[in-house]
Design a protein that fits this description.
5 helices, four-stranded antiparallel sheet, 8 strands, four-stranded mixed sheet, alpha+beta
Length: 188
Amino acid sequence: MQNQSKNKLDDDLEVSFIPMNLIADKYQNKFSYEIRKWSEVKKGYTHLQNRCIAIAKITPCFENGKCVILQDLKNGYGAGTTELIVVLADENKILPKFVFYFFNTTNFTKEGVKNFKGTAGQLRISKDFITNLQIPLPPLETQNQIVQILESKFTHLDNLAQFVNASLENLQRLKSSLLNQAFKGELV
């Protein structure tokens, strides 16, 4: 993996701007963005482009798993919070989704926390931590199989969570209905 380099774009180009609060927590691989002119965001922010992986480097965002594969950025480019580390996977060797899922493992997070630098409240992982990271690297075909299995299992778990949440809502409605019946004198 390599660190993302600086974008050289026309100042009037509309691009995506991604503050930390628009990146979803663990496993979701979701984000949204604001649209800005490149001239407004080219300095003082982290440069982004489609296919890069952005990971939060500051606590508690790092521990919360704020990590995303950037895609569908306005005109393919953007900028975001300075509290991101952005890497570009060599897709001939490693799949971005494989890296994304690796970045969401408990072991990765624990290692990152052990390697935090800075002062209390401003602790961060460093670019060196990511650059020197040893990711177990099976062949691309195996990486793809792992990603497909994970996505299938996560889809199943998401469906299960929706079912459980709907069941809990129904339970609350039933309890409320019973209470209403009890105090209207309809239970006895």
